[in-house]
Amino acid sequence: MSCAGSKKSPGDVTSVQENVKQYYGKxxxxxxxxxxxxxxxxxxxxxxxxxxxxxxxxxxxxxxxxYGCGPVIPEALENCNVLDLGSxxxxxxxxxxxxxxxxxxxxxxxxxEEQLEIARKYVDYHTKKFGYSQxxxxxxxxxxxxxxxxxxxxxxxxxxxxxxxxxxxPDKSAVLREAYRVLKVGGELYFSDMYTxxxxxxxxxxxxxxxxxxxxxxxxxxxxxxxxxxxxxxQPRLVTxxxxxxxxxxxxxxxxxxxxVTYRLFKLPATLRPVSxxxxxxxxxxxxxxxxxxxAKDAEVVTDGExxxxxxxxxxxxxxxxxxxxxxAVPQTPAPKVDPVRxxxxxxxxxxxxxxxxx
Length: 359
Ligand SMILES: C[S@@+](CC[C@H](N)C(=O)[O-])C[C@H]1O[C@@H](n2cnc3c(N)ncnc32)[C@H](O)[C@@H]1O
Known about the structure:
11 strands, 8-stranded mixed beta sheet, disordered N terminus, disordered C terminus, single chain
């Protein structure tokens, strides 16, 4: 079966990358030039106050060149070592620079010199703004399929983020394998990307604007589950999803729907925990009573081995009490496989800010 995730020949890969560099380095001047407006949509999910403040602190010149498609700032960031795949002008890196604090570190990797130039120009500005004695962020030229060439070593990061980039890469499996390699055990890949519910046609795949906007290279969402499993990650957990406004391209896209989805994947330990009793003990900024993983403070939840392993091996471990469950305990169902298009449509129905048209 041909799919957007399949490998292309090296020549194809180079020409796709050159088109993407042209698109983000030269064709687009600001986020307002994007054709789907995906980078300015709201999905009705409130952004925590401390994250809003961190974005507000990012220099306007950087924010003007923000081309991401969804939220990529998870919880529990203090002191983390973070990598941003396809960091662009650096908006998410600078917000993270504030949220991780002076003892954390962020590395942004990108292949487009014009984007790197903007990001590097504002490192000193943000270092001063956050009151740090030295920068805790740097930007490196490189291809995210080959992080080793950019000097990035095995088992280094607590967290990898990526915002609307993997859909631009012809070889998604190489990207996920590299992300897995450079994450520590318990590390998380928390990323936002474009997905579709249909098979993307040749015409769409070969159109440089549609590829540049993330649709030509979008995976059918189910394909991510197989890719993640093949690489060794935990099952993808959907954080949120929003529909893209593809009306400008309806002639060529036909009935295909496109959606920007934030997923979280974890690098699991070699041996998983058994079914466990887990309770959140509090302490994560913005999550006083419960975490996205649905653990209410002080209430014991019976979790399956995979989730218990995620919590006990990751940066979240210090915020949880985790014990083996009695043999009779029945775990909550493991992470469900959620159709993100349906999820976004339902969310849009309940709160009509699920599409780009809400601005
Ligand atoms: C849609 S923009 C997103 C930029 C940034 N994440 C943001 O949210 O503003 C995509 C970025 O990914 C970079 N990119 C695409 N493919 C890449 C690859 N294979 N290796 C490194 N960077 C890549 C592009 O150069 C571009 O800066």
